UniProtKB/TrEMBL annotation:
<protein>
    <submittedName>
        <fullName>Choline dehydrogenase</fullName>
    </submittedName>
</protein>
<feature type="binding site">
    <location>
        <position position="100"/>
    </location>
    <ligand>
        <name>FAD</name>
    </ligand>
</feature>
<dbReference type="Pfam" id="PF00732">
    <property type="entry name" value="GMC_oxred_N"/>
</dbReference>
<keyword id="KW-0285">Flavoprotein</keyword>
<dbReference type="InterPro" id="IPR007867">
    <property type="entry name" value="GMC_OxRtase_C"/>
</dbReference>
<dbReference type="InterPro" id="IPR036188">
    <property type="entry name" value="FAD/NAD-bd_sf"/>
</dbReference>
<dbReference type="InterPro" id="IPR000172">
    <property type="entry name" value="GMC_OxRdtase_N"/>
</dbReference>
<dbReference type="InterPro" id="IPR012132">
    <property type="entry name" value="GMC_OxRdtase"/>
</dbReference>
<dbReference type="GO" id="GO:0016614">
    <property type="term" value="F:oxidoreductase activity, acting on CH-OH group of donors"/>
</dbReference>
<comment type="similarity">
    <text>Belongs to the GMC oxidoreductase family.</text>
</comment>
<dbReference type="GO" id="GO:0050660">
    <property type="term" value="F:flavin adenine dinucleotide binding"/>
</dbReference>
<dbReference type="Pfam" id="PF05199">
    <property type="entry name" value="GMC_oxred_C"/>
</dbReference>
<keyword id="KW-0274">FAD</keyword>
<feature type="domain" description="Glucose-methanol-choline oxidoreductase N-terminal">
    <location>
        <begin position="288"/>
        <end position="302"/>
    </location>
</feature>
Amino acid sequence: MGGDNPAGGPATAREAASGRFDFIIVGAGTAGCLLANRLSADPAKRVLLLEAGGRDDYHWIHIPVGYLYCIGNPRTDWLFKTEPDAGLNGRSLRYPRGKVLGGCSSINGMIYMRGQTRDYDGWAAASGDDAWRWDAVLPYFRQHEDHWRLDDGADRPPGFDPALHGHGGEWRVEKQRLRWAVLDAFAAAAQEAGIPATPDFNRGNNEGVGYFEVNQRAGWRWNTAKAFLRPACYRRPNFEMWTGTQAHRLLLEQVDGETRCDGVLVRTPQGLEEIRLNAGGQVLLAAGAIGSPQLLQLSGLGPATLLQRHGIEVVRDLPGVGGNLQDHLQIRAVFQVDGVSTLNTLASSWFGKARIGLEYALRRTGPMSMAPSQLGAFARSGPDKAWPDLQYHVQPLSLEAFGEPLHAFNAFTASVCNLNPTSRGSVAIRSADAADAPLIAPNYLSTAEDREIAARSLRLTRRIVEQPALARYRPREYKPGVQFQTDEELARLAGDIATTIFHPVGTCRMGRDDDAGAVVDSRLRVRGVSGLRVIDASVMPTITSGNTNSPTLMIAERAAAWLSAGE
């Protein structure tokens, strides 16, 4: 098969599996696509990329607003749900994860966000390795970046530092191709409330308000499959990719008293197959914060009591596998407005929808080009905070819940999340069958600190909306409602109206040698198992202060450099 038909799968899985590989990458998502590109650049290394989902040839993947048709769609989404959550007053949430080439980069909000300097300095402290400090990882963000402000003739306003960004890399970063009067007014109101304007959220301190930059190219979604697989990998005879191929178990062997990963057991359209490594080869788990711990547990690497409960032989008792789940919980406050257009009414008629479609067809602009959230703000929940601990995603629309119709009145939604939650959840296998979705228990709002920040964040939202810049639109609080005022009421209401913003991380976290809960070391090697690494968002010790897709790419870039150097 080689590079001639990389996405179609081998003619017969057993024939292809008779060969051995230097790298087997499990998961063709955000991290996996970059790893495949970097590692297959060495023609002496044979690389296999495995993806449980299909090709990214569904048209709604590439039209930015198409996330509405990809989330909750079995063609592109694993369709996970969380367990009933006490912090959400017993509610379960839809938990989207990409099941397609490009993974979550094919269905996410496209927002380019690195986080804050302190996030990475904290990782360095937790792992005992200065390779994760902000100054050390910044070159790995820049390496694959292609920032629009570095294009010839692009505007570079005060506050934008070209030295912090890259140009000519695979990962395109562009400005959005539309603006909304109601969002401009919210930005002005935020400034009146003390949040400064910023031209760049990615300078290490993201405090400020402005329009998000997005991973798009000329009005199309730019996912990691387009960025890193096509065309480079597809031209390489040492690269193979199998879609529709789910990993069921790692192949682990005991050699001279040590545990080594020798390959992967997968299910292809032709059935179960074993894929083996060359001597000295490595399996790289890039299945994400849900898939990677699930596969480790199915393979006998995880909490012994959990594995024994499901009749799985304990190869290594690694209690941290599946623990430390962190996510950003967004509290969606909705405000009805007058005298300004929002998507609610703009898309309320067939004529309006036709105009929107025509604008996108002709110019690649307008609502069909927009990310789920256009305006962002990073702020402090109180004067006691030394850094921004809140993030706003502001949208010129409103609805009762994701997937439901837009409201019949004009409104905007100011979603706010605690960037640094102290609540911790878990991912655990439901059975010994890889086809069974794991138990996902985020444990939202389970600490007093998180409940306090939830109440603070709603109060700050109200203070912004009360500023003069929004007054001409007469904003009225539709949700949660002005009748709720006390901290206890607001925290309880947060449990009623909050939802995930799709940023699960931390379930295979890195840590020091003396950290019993660490799953991987600072170079992302699984504890006590040679030939096996985890390279995705699950290795984050703590969640980044912002959207998590681009930090995951940086992790893969950092790891690829170590692997290419033989470290």
